[in-house]
Amino acid sequence: MPKLPVKQSVKFANPESNLAVCTLWTPLEIVERHLSEDDYAIIGQLYSKDAGLNTVLRYCLSNKRIRYIVVCGQDRTGSGQALINLKEKGIDAESRVIGVPGAAVDKEIPKDAVERFRKNVEILDFRNETHYSRLKDEIKRLPKLESYGTPEEFPEAKVELPESFPTDPLFKIRAKTVGEAWLQALSAVMTYGSVKQSQHDERQKEVICLSATITDENTAKPEWKNYYPFQIEELEDYYPQVLSDQKIPELTYTYGQRLRDHKGVDQIMEMVRKLKETPYTRRAVAATWNVERDTNNKNPPCLCFIEALVTEGKLYLIAFVRSLDVYGAFVKNAYALRRLQETIAGETGNKVGDLTLIYGSGHIYERHFRIVNELLKDCPLKENIKFDLPRSTGNLDPRGNIHIEISKGRLKLTHLAPDGTRLEEFTAATAAEAVQWLVLGQKIGDISHAIYVGQELAKAELAMRKGLKYQQDMPLG
């Protein structure tokens, strides 16, 4: 067996040993220091009850000298329990480990091979052991056993994409234009949306609390996309439904009617008046929801509430939409609300800031699944979204930039505003300490910026340890 460096999640030692040691989420070095390399064939961490579990099973079936597995350390994700259940209870007809949700054996590993493992390999559960020095004595008591057969190798597992990926109740999108935001929203719902029934006798994929912020769109000169499912003339026809109290014959009501004429009150003009009188007001709001009419209405408004706030001479508009058909309604709604924002900004003498749209339910109906998948295939995100890799300056994170250097044997981080103004400094002994400061202080708001800073901190820490020259954005010297 190859000898890997100790600073890995796996280390090989004595190839004649019957023993493998799984330290789960506990760093293997903590356990290894209490053992002799003669004691074990392999020691490693086991993070996952899926991929990690199958790695252990495949290794044991390829090396049938392994007759014992010691399971110890912190079982944060249930990977240790999955291994124990595999031994004690086996797998069901679908290759799922009995009694451990989310744990399954690769279908490429036949059940008879799993049974050979279960019959011949003993699992020793030391997860509650806090004094690893005792392990050595326990290991010495294990009788030496012969290999139980010839090595078995199996094809690599083919990962099948799930119907939806796990998600959380806040999905944040930030884009320059409506078109870029729409592609990201479609991708988010199709990838992470939960499949569930809707109140329209049709299944849907749904993301809860989908947030889309649009920064640069100008509706006077829209950045029109050839992948929109309608013509620009249709958008012009739609604007009055949001911007005016114009009656549309085929519609019971419009957003514009409710915003412009709510029991005789033009809420948009009231927002403008309040912002002119008090630019810092938090009361420039408008609602379309009428409690008396909409509580039991089978066709209540989807757009419920808007608020305008002025900061540093820019007018920001926030809209809450309780329910949005992301394929059928996102683009027109976003353009119309952006134009409404531009109108309010012009009336109040402010520049146009970001438009943030918060969708309680962002969904795509089943009748559009195929259309959307084909659209995303024909218009992939990487080719249709202007994405610049972050650098120490000039990234798109609205919370600013992070400058990194090595100073007096420590990592020095400087938080810079988008305009380059120095905001705060922090020094850390390790990249992990620096990350904690960044996370707890919420210094980073953009995921690509966060990944970039993590890469740079890892480089800087390595340079500091090895005595190398570090300069941000440059290869190590």
In brief:
It is built from 16 helices and 15 strands. With 477 residues, the chain is an alpha/beta fold. It folds into 3 domains: 131 residues, Rossmann fold; 214 residues, Thymidylate synthase/dCMP hydroxymethylase domain (Thymidylate Synthase, Chain A, 2-Layer Sandwich), CATH 3.30.572.10; 66 residues.
Care to describe what's here?
The protein has helices at residues 28-32, 51-62, 79-89, 111-120, 133-140, 178-192, 232-238, 240-243, 255-260, 267-277, 291-294, 326-348, 369-378, 381-384, 431-440, 447-466, and strands at 10-12, 19-22, 42-44, 68-72, 122-126, 171-175, 194-197, 203-214, 285-287, 303-311, 314-325, 351-365, 401-407, 410-416, 422-428. The chain is α/β, with parallel strands linked by helices and 477 residues long. It has 3 domains: 10-140, Rossmann fold (3-Layer(aba) Sandwich), CATH 3.40.50; 171-384, Thymidylate synthase/dCMP hydroxymethylase domain (Thymidylate Synthase, Chain A), CATH 3.30.572.10; 401-466. The strands form 3 sheets. Strands 6, 7, 8, 9, 10, 11 and 12 form a 7-stranded mixed beta sheet that branches. It has a 5-stranded mixed beta sheet with strand order 1-3-2-4-5. The radius of gyration is 29 Å and the shape is globular. The relative contact order is 0.08. Mean pLDDT is 91; it is low at 1-8.
